[in-house]
Amino acid sequence: MMEVDGVVQAICAIYDSATSNTDRLKCTQAIEDFKDGPPELVANTAFELISQNSPILRHTGWTLLEDLIRYKWVTLSPELCLTVRNRIFQAIDTLVQEETTESCARCVVAMMEHEWPQNWPELTPQLQEICSRSFLHCAIVFAIQRRLVENVATLASIANARRRKEMHGAMVESVDDFLKLALDTLNSCPLDETNLLAVRNIFGWLIEVCSCVTSDSLENQLIRIVDTVTRYLSTAEGNIYEQAAQCLATLSARRREKSDKSVVISAFFREEVFSVILTITSLAADNSQSNEQHYRFLKSLCEVLTTLGNFLSKVWTEKTPPANFGTYISAIVAFFNHESLYLKHEACDVLVALSSHASFREDEHLMQSLRFVFSNALSAFTKHGYPSQDPPTPASHYSQMDFEDDLEWHNFFIRFRSRLQVLIADNLGAHFEHLLSVYEIDVFQRIFSDPYAVKEAQWEAMQKFSRSVILVAYERKIADKKNERLIAMRNALVAMMANVTVCDVLSDPRPEHQ
User: Is there a domain that residue 244 lies in?
Assistant: First the structure.
């Protein structure tokens, strides 16, 4: 059986580029055979490795420990189990470095899956005490907590349903204490490399907890959570701002009991929150075309706002919109007018949901926003910006980041156009006169001035827009009061057709009259 020196030599040979494949396979098999040896020897060797200066040796040491815990724990003597547990926590105190944080967390969570909470009731206070020592220790603790939530709730990778239920109950009970630690740390954490790791792990834990865990403590502290996370939207170091946006989106979308559904509205629809979100959104939008990271961030901010809008349309029961609704809806319109097809689609979905709600459909801010959207409807109906478009455009640049190929883009565009048609149809009664004016300027006058200059994609967009407005208006008896105006435009187009000699141009989007 190999001793520590033999294990070190085998590991170094495996990672040495000069080692032949045959020798590398032999060394790898030797390590696998070593794992099956006496548990005491494996444990002692692993702890010796994690104390080395080499990152490779440290990582291998934690991997050996995880393998021992995950697959052989139930066969170990109680004394050895306790020894391994205590030595791991001694290592957390003195040996763990940034690059081995996740490896250490995996080992602790593996032990928890065997022992916690029944045989390890002191663990939660122990982790809380460790968290207070330094920001690196805090990073380790929240890496443990994040992996715990992932294994118990998100991925549900613990096979035994009874154990999973027991751990879930204990995890929910501890959320309140760890939430206070997390928020206190975020509010006091100066940002350097080590502290960034703590912040990233806290956000990772928050995102997982908000996604999968129903807890009163989260609802009770929602305003503080939102205020704390919002401040990190302007933190570019380590992509923290993207995690902060994802956290806000998860908070706004999380499952809630019926009695708690109004909490999220009061937490988010505040001037101090929206002013930060909208300012950051504007900055992200300015740089999103040239920077994929900024675009991902912009999409996360869009998810925050659109999730709020969809949630608002489902739970709001007051007769008037919430405070700052006008500010909110202006941001949604800005997303609709963005060059990104993905952002347009998400914004359109929210506009459909809000405009069909009795409390919002006659709101002055929404009415004005819809008029602004409808003024640009023809452009939205036009197929442009597909990924392979040559020469490329800003819209096609975003499409390259969102879609694999032109077919995927086309299918998504059809979905977007269908939602836009629903938006127009649902609001046609209140906005028909404005939509007819848009038709007259963007379609009728455009064709009348020079039908030969209209491109194929523009013809299709004009036809779709015309049917969405005029045909639907006739079907719903909305067009009657503008009948003379429509007939005049139709007659003018028919008269012009007599002078058109190109068959494709003759398929014009004329007003249809029944």
Answer: no
